[in-house]
Amino acid sequence: MAATLALVDRVIFDTVEIAEKRLEEHLDCDILYYYGELRTGNFNSFKDVIERMAERGDKREALALCLTTPGGEAEAVERMVNVIRHHYNNFYAIVPNTAMSAGTIFCMAADKIYMNYASALGPIDPQVPDRENRVLVPALGYLDKVDELIEKSRDNTITPAEFSMLQNLDLAMLRFYEQAKDLSINLLKKWLTEYKFKNWTNHRTNNVGSKVTSDQKLQRAEEIAMKLSDNKIWHSHGRTIPMGVLRSELKLEIEDFGEDDNLNLNVRRYSDTLTGYLERNGSQFAIYNRHIF
Fold this sequence. Notes:
The chain is α/β, with parallel strands linked by helices. It has one domain. It is 52% helix and 13% strand. It has helices at residues 2-27, 43-54, 74-87, 102-107, 139-154, 160-167, 171-196, 214-228, 231-234, 243-248, 261-280, and strands at residues 30-35, 62-68, 90-94, 98-99, 112-115, 120-121, 127-129, 136-138, 241-242, 255-256, 286-288. The protein has a 6-stranded mixed sheet, with helices on both faces. A hairpin with a 6-residue loop joins β7 (127-129) and β8 (136-138).
């Protein structure tokens, strides 16, 4: 039985390694697979792998991160992006399935974002530790509820139970949640302007052909950040935002890997094979690159 399982594992990773090699050649970049939450506790593992990849003699100038995540901490994403940008001149985000919340923030730090019709990002509702630091909770949902209670208090429509909830608020945690929201928005504005929009030099819709100014890039980035953080638009922390909506409503340039048969085949073979293997084994977090593992 053990020999059979070992053989199955070898077949799985042979498939993954071939797909990774083909993706490297197709996109002319190094490839890193990331599965799981984006948490500070995972940072050292991430940093160590990037450093080991960067030490290779045949290291490329770009890194593509194949990312599947339910979200996590914006602070962790900021540190991970800094590591990537220290070692690589260009950064691509590949989303074969979903990159939610902090995963969306991560993607906005990329020079290019690769998705297909079934891929999705999510609202940038930052996830922060609860009081006991045991689980992550969506900050915007908490802030929205507080705003609702304050508005009811102002209108004298608040119930005694709701008033009691308002009185018992932990103001330090409330401020922590507000800071998490501000950080998420500011990171998006900075990274979109600096990286995603770096080659946006001329207008393509309004005032076609005219030069795009730095202020216009910043304004566009702020519009995207505010929309992605607006629960009134998305209604749910878990709401997925497909490529079509990102293109049409947020006017984001997304590379559709589904339009290239070979690229689509190898992204799916690489990601689906690894993800299926991890899910069958009950793994919560994994990083993979064939040169390191």
